[in-house]
Amino acid sequence: MIRRLYFTTGLIIISAVSFSQSFILPNFGLKSHETLVIKKIEATIKATTFSMTIENRIQGGKFCADKNIYMVYPDGTRIKLTSSSGIPVCPDTYKFKTIGEKLDFTLTFPPLKQGTAWVDLIEECSDNCFYFYGITLDNDLNGKIDAAFSLAENDENTKSLISFIDIVEENDSKNLGVEGLLYVNIIRLAKGTGNSTQASDWYKKLKASGAPRLSDYIKYLNDQGIKY
């Protein structure tokens, strides 16, 4: 009996360790606040914790987190925030002392469902609410997207364009939360490299894609004067 008990306990520990995952600076599709950053997401059998930071850009800036913050699964299921740390709950506010000051805080939710590829993070409040759409919970995919962005940052736009196209073609059937982001970058890179025909073709593919929050991505492009 003792041998069997030890063996069973070992399985539980191994299972718990295997489900513990960390996502450093995960990619996402769209967000509300320019300087709000998800530094890390830790998913364990006990909780899902978002480690975040925001930088103040204005004199007399203030920030708070509403109690009504949700982690939203791809099927629309909303999971409410269980606790927060390092940030006041609205209407209380944190008053920044200087421009450029950063506030680090955490938001904690119940455990993430295994196999979840992406989530949204949405604050519901009366004013200036924050959101992140399509937060990617796949380290391999995040690595590929990071590499594609790095190519663009190093002015290797043609290689970056090819990388983004490869990522779309590899994942087109998965209904990813960042699908719209991938299309947007393909369209912008194609346009930027002087290939308007390719940009137009991918714009039409985006419109027909059924990507999550498709209308938001179309509006994002249109607001930048990109429309075909």
Overall pLDDT metric: 90
Overall structural class, as computed from helix and strand content, comes to alpha+beta
Shape: globular
| Count of distinct structural domains | 2
Radius of gyration over all CA atoms, rounded? 20 Å
Note the run of SSEs as H and E: HEEEEEEEEEEEEHHHHH
Helical percentage:
25-40%
SS strand fraction: 15-25%
Low-confidence stretches: 1-17
Distance between the termini: 71 Å
Pick out its properties.
25% strand; Serine Threonine Protein Phosphatase 5, Tetratricopeptide repeat; Immunoglobulin-like; 6 helices; 228 residues; five-stranded antiparallel beta sheet; 38% helix; alpha+beta
Overview of the molecule:
β6 and β7 form a beta hairpin. By secondary structure, the chain is an alpha+beta fold. It starts with a helix and ends in a 5-residue tail after the last helix. It has helices at residues 2-19, 139-153, 157-171, 179-192, 196-209, 214-223; strands at 21-24, 30-31, 36-43, 48-55, 62-63, 69-72, 78-80, 83-85, 94-95, 102-109, 118-123, 131-136. α3 (157-171) runs antiparallel to α4 and α4 (179-192) runs antiparallel to α5. The protein folds into two domains: 20-136, Immunoglobulin-like; 139-223, Serine Threonine Protein Phosphatase 5, Tetratricopeptide repeat (Alpha Horseshoe). The model is unreliable at 1-17 (pLDDT under 50). It has six helices and twelve strands. The strands form three sheets. It has a five-stranded antiparallel beta sheet with strand order 1-3-4-10-8, with no helix packed on it. Strands 2-12-11-6-7 form a five-stranded antiparallel beta sheet. Strands 5-9 form a two-stranded antiparallel sheet.
